[in-house]
From TrEMBL:
<keyword id="KW-0645">Protease</keyword>
<protein>
    <recommendedName>
        <fullName>Angiotensin-converting enzyme</fullName>
        <ecNumber>3.4.-.-</ecNumber>
    </recommendedName>
</protein>
<dbReference type="Pfam" id="PF01401">
    <property type="entry name" value="Peptidase_M2"/>
</dbReference>
<keyword id="KW-0862">Zinc</keyword>
<keyword id="KW-0378">Hydrolase</keyword>
<comment type="similarity">
    <text>Belongs to the peptidase M2 family.</text>
</comment>
<keyword id="KW-0325">Glycoprotein</keyword>
<keyword id="KW-0482">Metalloprotease</keyword>
<dbReference type="InterPro" id="IPR001548">
    <property type="entry name" value="Peptidase_M2"/>
</dbReference>
<feature type="signal peptide">
    <location>
        <begin position="1"/>
        <end position="23"/>
    </location>
</feature>
<keyword id="KW-0121">Carboxypeptidase</keyword>
<keyword id="KW-1015">Disulfide bond</keyword>
<feature type="disulfide bond">
    <location>
        <begin position="395"/>
        <end position="413"/>
    </location>
</feature>
<keyword id="KW-0479">Metal-binding</keyword>
<keyword id="KW-0732">Signal</keyword>
Length: 696
């Protein structure tokens, strides 16, 4: 999603190009057939929307780089104005019959304004759903738990006061997001009155709880934080979430979709979208199962068969992450060659006297070396490249487009580490994207679909976090170690982050769409059913419908679609391989570096320049020189091929590649409707439905 322009993106998000899906209600409105008037409206819209976007973005920038109550109020005022503007523009745009507009680009813009929005709701309901989402975010951001092994103190101190430090960043997925969650009312370090004893039950997801999950190897402690965080989030939001589902569906139906999931999927402009996703999942599942099986063996060595069954699913609290979505923190347990190093050039950077500024200059040079654009002077004047000493700021790295074709900035509390060097190149890729599509109209200054921005930025970082590249820029030297062992360790690190993530990134919206489509009954049980089916994980203790475990994931309760992360991760490797081919690199994919390749730079510019003015499938067709118009996981599978071969050897004596689930696994979350026959019956149905997954 496009950064700071989030509220604009809301209108852009779900646009769908074909008109046949639109319901009568909306078609009845779209009665103005005067194409010239429609074009005139779009010209005015472009000017006003850019101006509005500039003011909102600037107010957000001022707040997140200087967190004061005054700046927060200013930002909320701008957001309210923006919300009004959105509703007004929606009404105007919806009055035109876009089918009468012959110019394809204008038609596409009209569709973008109308179809992603919830502005079809009556005003009170439009405000209500926004209010509900804000409340859920506040509850989430206020969640705190007591330290392990200590009793909770008086609960009146754990109040959800609006002035309580709402100091959570949006948990980032894969690499850091370039998006700003503009509705997030507070940032870290927001001035607050600290209740006495505050250090007692004051552990937040970020950083304390996440740190425990990443580094603790005491099983009972992992169980404790896993469970406690879920107690402090889901159940408090469940009722609000059910109302949110109702309103989102109502908005979708009034806009011409069958439900809110249908509306979310429309932005991908693919009539067989769900089938395409399923196909991609099935293509990566064999690789995932090899990784899964190897990791399960290592977890058994650490925790024993009492905790992990040799052919069973993995309990979700053992994988180093609250949602079992990124396993890189358990690298110490699964490292292929512990005697060979993990690549980390941090100490070399320090030895060479790197500074944050030098890291950004190096990232800029990466793009100019490929013949792409340098960052403009405004970038160097306006950006926040390191944490300022004198004021409190929100530190999540992000890249900003101020919608005026002049001002682009990055906010990052850069430290001299390899991770931040990679992140710097990633954020600079977003800036490059902004610069490349700057001449497009406002509505098209975005990725071709919601997956594109992150995918492009991550594709570039594959070329930076890369043994060859780090050697070329003089930060890594391989003299002392076996290159095969170094490569396997490297690929394992990448797999724990990317391959382990795919089933999770796939299942979140499968679940969400099923709730929009089939209703809110047994939401928690369905969540775990999908976790088990796609990820092969089970909860470490009994779950019921009084729990609401999806509510422990920020993107679920904050109304942010998730499938873009799944597609983005797949697309990232596909883009990367195309760039590598353009650069004429024929070796192992994980060793390809496109630095200094003018041909790769030309291709990347071609991908970026159209922004959202073309469909993703058109851009993929261009990028693959006509070979395909589909997102495909073949490149990802190829990238990990050497590791997969190694894993197959490690797993040769395993009883089962993948997992089989038994009655007990399913009993952990089967719905307990009533007693006796009814419950047994639904249990049997569930077991039967799980069985079929085993034989897929
Ligand atoms: C931070 O914001 C306040 C307004 O609340 C303003 O007076 C101050 O000058 C700002 N500081 C910086 C460094 O921009
Ligand atoms: C991809 O191209 C095929 C024809 O080769 C077409 O039928 C299909 O609709 C295109 N897919 C998308 C998503 O546009
Ligand atoms: C170091 O890297 C170079 C270039 O990648 C390679 O040719 C060489 O064999 C490596 N040396 C060792 C000892 O691994
Ligand atoms: Zn990003």
């Amino acid at each position: 999603m496009g950064t700071s322009k989030v509220s604009f993106v809301i209108v852009q998000l779900f646009a769908f190009f074909t008109w046949h899906a639109i319901a009568q209600e909306y078609v009845r409105m779209a009665s103005n057939t005067n194409a010239a008037e429609a074009m005139q409206f779009l010209r005015e819209y472009d000017r006003e929307a850019s101006g509005m976007c500039y003011r909102v973005t600037m107010s957000q920038w001022r707040f997140v780089t200087n967190i004061t109550e005054y700046n927060r109020r200013r930002m909320l005022e701008e957001l309210a104005l923006n919300s009004k503007f959105e509703r007004l523009s929606w009404r105007k745009a919806a009055a035109y019959d876009a089918t009468r507009v012959s110019d394809v680009q204008s038609r596409r813009q009209l569709v973008k304004i109308v179809q992603g929005s919830r502005a079809a709701l009556p005003e009170d309901k439009f405000n209500e759903i926004q209010q509900i989402i804000t409340e859920m975010k506040e509850i989430y951001n206020a969640a705190k738990i007591c330290p392990y092994g200590q009793k909770p103190y008086d609960s009146h101190l754990q109040r959800d006061s609006p002035f309580y430090p709402q100091s959570r960043q949006e948990p980032y997925d894969q690499t850091r997001s370039h998006t700003q969650d503009i509705y997030q009312p507070f940032g870290p370090g927001f001035p607050h009155e600290t209740p006495e004893n505050s250090n007692y039950c004051d552990m937040q997801l970020d950083p304390e709880i996440s740190r425990i999950l990443a580094h603790s190897r005491i099983e009972s402690e992992l169980v404790y934080v896993w469970k406690s965080f879920r107690e402090q989030t889901g159940p408090k939001m469940k009722n609000r979430f059910m109302r949110y589902v109702q309103l989102a569906n109502q908005a979708a139906v009034s806009t011409g979709y069958s439900d809110a999931g249908d509306q979310m999927r429309a932005s991908y402009e693919d009539p067989s979208f769900r089938a395409s996703l399923e196909e991609i999942y099935n293509q990566v599942a064999p690789l995932y199962k090899q990784l899964f099986t190897y990791v399960r063996r290592k977890l058994i060595q650490r925790y024993g068969e009492r905790v992990v069954r040799p052919d069973g699913p993995i309990p979700a609290h053992l994988l180093g992450n609250m949602w079992a979505q990124n396993w890189k923190s358990i690298m110490d347990l699964v490292m292929p060659f512990p005697q060979a190093p993990n690549i980390d050039v941090t100490s070399e950077m320090l030895r060479q006297g790197f500074t944050p500024l030098r890291m950004f200059q190096m990232a800029e040079e990466f793009y100019t070396s490929m013949g792409m654009k340098p960052a403009p002077p405004e970038f160097w004047r306006g950006s926040m490249l390191a944490r300022p000493a004198e004021r409190s700021v929100q530190c999540t790295a992000s890249a900003w487009d101020f919608c005026n074709r002049i001002d682009y900035r990055i906010k990052q509390c850069t430290e001299v580490t390899m991770q931040d060097l990679v992140s710097t190149h990633h954020e600079m890729a977003h800036i490059q994207y902004y610069l490349q599509y700057a001449e497009q109209p406002q509505l098209f200054r975005d990725g071709a679909n919601p997956a594109f921005h992150e995918a492009v930025a991550n594709a570039v970082t594959l070329s930076v976090y890369n043994i060859q590249h780090l050697q070329r820029v003089g930060l890594y030297n391989n003299r002392t170690h076996d290159p095969y062992q170094v490569s396997m360790n490297f690929l394992m690190t990448m797999a724990l982050e990317k391959v382990a993530y795919l089933p999770f990134a796939f299942m979140v919206d499968q679940w969400r769409w099923s709730v929009f489509e089939d209703g809110v009954q047994n939401m928690n049980s369905r969540w775990w059913q999908m976790k088990l089916r796609f990820q092969g994980v089970i909860p470490p203790m009994q779950r019921t419908e009084a729990d609401f475990d999806p509510g422990s994931k920020y993107h679920v309760i904050s109304d942010q679609e998730y499938i873009k992360y799944f597609l983005g991760t797949v697309l990232e490797f596909q883009l990367y391989e195309q760039l590598c081919q353009a650069a004429g690199q024929a070796g192992h994919l994980h060793e390809c570096d496109v630095y200094r390749s003018r041909d790769a730079g030309r291709l990347l510019s071609e991908i970026m320049q159209p922004g959202a003015s073309k469909t993703a499938s058109e851009i993929i067709r261009t990028m693959t020189r006509g070979r395909t118009n589909r997102i495909s996981p073949e490149s990802l599978v190829r990238y990990f091929r050497p590791l997969e071969l190694w894993l197959r050897v490690q797993n040769r004596d395993e009883p089962l590649i993948g997992w089989s689930s038994n009655y007990q696994d399913i009993g952990l979350f089967a719905p307990q409707r009533g007693h006796g026959i009814k419950a047994t019956y639904s249990m049997v149905l569930l077991v039967l439905s799980m069985m079929q997954f085993l034989f897929l």
